[in-house]
Amino acid sequence: MNSVQKLRWGILGSANIAIGSVIPGLQQSELNEVTAIASRDLDKAQQTADKLGIEKAYGSYEAILEDDSIDAVYIPLPNHLHREWTIRAAQAGKHILCEKPLALTEKEALEMVEACADAGVHLAEAFMYRHHPRYDQIREIIASGEIGEIRGIHSTFSFNNSGSSGNVRFRKEWGGGALYDIGCYSISAARLLLGQEPKAVTVIGMFSPEHDQVDMMASGLLEFDNHVGVTFDSSMWAAFRNTLEVLGSDGIIEVPSAYIARPDSSSNFFVSAGGERREVEVPQVNHYALQGDDMARAVLQGKELRFAPSDAAANMKVLEACLRSAEERTRITL
Fold it and tell me: N or C: which end of the chain has fewer CB within 10 A?
């Protein structure tokens, strides 16, 4: 008999990210188990439960919140529903892992953080990439001075799903668009590696009439202290890219697959300094599992979350400013 206490999860919805990545990650983790999944379509919930070996299926999200045997919920719903269901889950006493971006605005994010604090529950934003040990390795290399002072960062994340009809990412009122879907990774990573907040943002966006006027492409500049500029581009209508480059005065860190790290493939990165280029070995781990275990340790062992919910609100402030900059074609000071 396994005596390890585990955090019991309910899943609000059967989005692809839940079925393909987060649920398997939780099931492979040390301290979590998925005990229920809900969908507004009970048959769909039951099919998903049967496929993934989940004990209970519910035909409403409310049923998950009413289940006293569930400790935490994962919310992979469309962006415009994050605020409502996070607050409702908090009021039901559930700890919450919510998909990125946390909300549609900084104001919404702060309301969610406050609601969770008032209810005494933990709230985490589902940026799985930063739980991968390679980001600790990257930060250690930066701190060591091996590449000198940081002069700039460039980040890309793009793919082409422009022909995907009915995609929630193409609904403007639902928080669609490339910035909210994948540009948020570049912003989060820059803030993580620099350990500070940008002072201003400038973004140019391609807003598509074919896709409800969401930004299908966005290219931006984030201005940080010490004259450091972070450039990024995000797109849902371009060839696939997923890279990060940290440029130092004496060297470069290159991450070929910056935000996608499959357990069955290499997540190694490269450091060029002192006239040599070396490959840094990275453990092959499931960062979705590590993300789940971070929440479980907070709930079950009283440890602090690695990333406080206030970080999600801070990221939302920058993200919201980027979208506004693209819409108004102007530089936004933060």
Answer: N
Query: pLDDT band for position 3 (50/70/90)?
Result: low
Q: If DSSP codes are grouped into helix, strand and coil, which group holds residue 330?
A: coil
| Same domain? 31 vs 88 | yes
Residues 6+ apart with CB under 8 A from 189: 129, 130, 135, 153, 155, 244, 258, 259
pLDDT of residue 290: 98
- Whether omega for the bond prior to residue 101 falls within 30 degrees of 0, making it cis, is yes
Bridge partner list, 246:
153, 253
Cβ contact 157:182 at 8 Å: yes
Mean pLDDT of 173-178: 97
Q: What is the pLDDT of residue 1?
A: 36
**Structure confidence by residue, pLDDT tens digits, 272-328:** 999 999 999 999 999 999 999 999 999 999 999 999 999 999 999 999 999 999 999
Closest CA to 100 of 291, 315, 267: 315
Catalytic machinery residues: 100
Structure letter (DSSP) for residue 281: P
Q: Which of 55, 52, 41, 53 is nearest to 13 (CA)?
A: 41
User: Among the three residues 76, 92, 126, which one is the final residue of a domain in this structure?
Assistant: 126
Token digits of residue 290: 């590590």
Tokens encoding 253: 């860190």
- Cβ atoms < 10 Å from Cβ of 195: 10
Terminal C-alpha separation, the chain:
54
Task: Please report, for the domain that includes residue 79, its CATH number.
Answer: 3.40.50.720
Q: Letter for the amino acid at 31?
A: L
pLDDT band at 264 (very low <50, low <70, confident <90, very high): confident
